[in-house]
């Protein structure tokens, strides 16, 4: 039985992987799939892909594209969630900041450089016509717990993270959300190390087929809203809103989208060069 290590954030987007694991379908296909939660997000997963600690990652589109351009020997093999990710822009409850433009020139908490929270700070700055060199400053806080400490202590001024994941922290009166910033592209893809793609294409295809069966009918699973609410400490109405906004995909990301992401990352100064479509994506 082939052991395959997969990484992803411990969020409701990835529940389909847990359900597929729980059903035993991977084992029936001769695959010992081992899931690892990455609380540090995209930057942490990119590092693990480079080191070979994981074979696959369910990862933010912009983050993995940036890292492949910078030499990560991995490729995108499928879109996982085709709808945008809605990033909430958060401040500490007692902060003086009331609107997004109040944050101009202040310090953003980010999980690590190259992470989604880092890259989306640039997108938000561009959306608001800030000076990307003068108006962006960063404090590395590693994860969501670090963000709570960082904003509460004043070490950082604002924090961008998926708005439904942070909603319980807002409801508890620790954060205030003062705005949203959706990604201008599909939010999650599945990426795999090139070595793994070359050596185990059949196992990779089986893994994608199994999880795709779950995502195709994910919203029709009986009481899935209650399951998510209980598992991820969410209010039922928030889960129902999230489900209404979220669309999974079973297809490979298209060239136009890949080039759009690279164009935007380059215009923001996040990457210095671009790669052709076939250097970022592998069609199985």
TrEMBL record:
Gene3D superfamilies: Periplasmic binding protein-like II (3.40.190.10)
Keywords of this entry: Signal
Localization, UniProt: Periplasm
SUPFAM superfamilies to which the protein is assigned, alphabetical: Periplasmic binding protein-like II
Lineage: superkingdom: Bacteria
GO cellular component labels: periplasmic space
Record keyword Aminoacyl-tRNA synthetase present: no
Residues annotated as domain Ca3427-like PBP: 87-180
Similarity-based family: Belongs to the bacterial solute-binding protein SsuA/TauA family.
Protein name: Substrate-binding domain-containing protein
Organism field: Mangrovimonas cancribranchiae
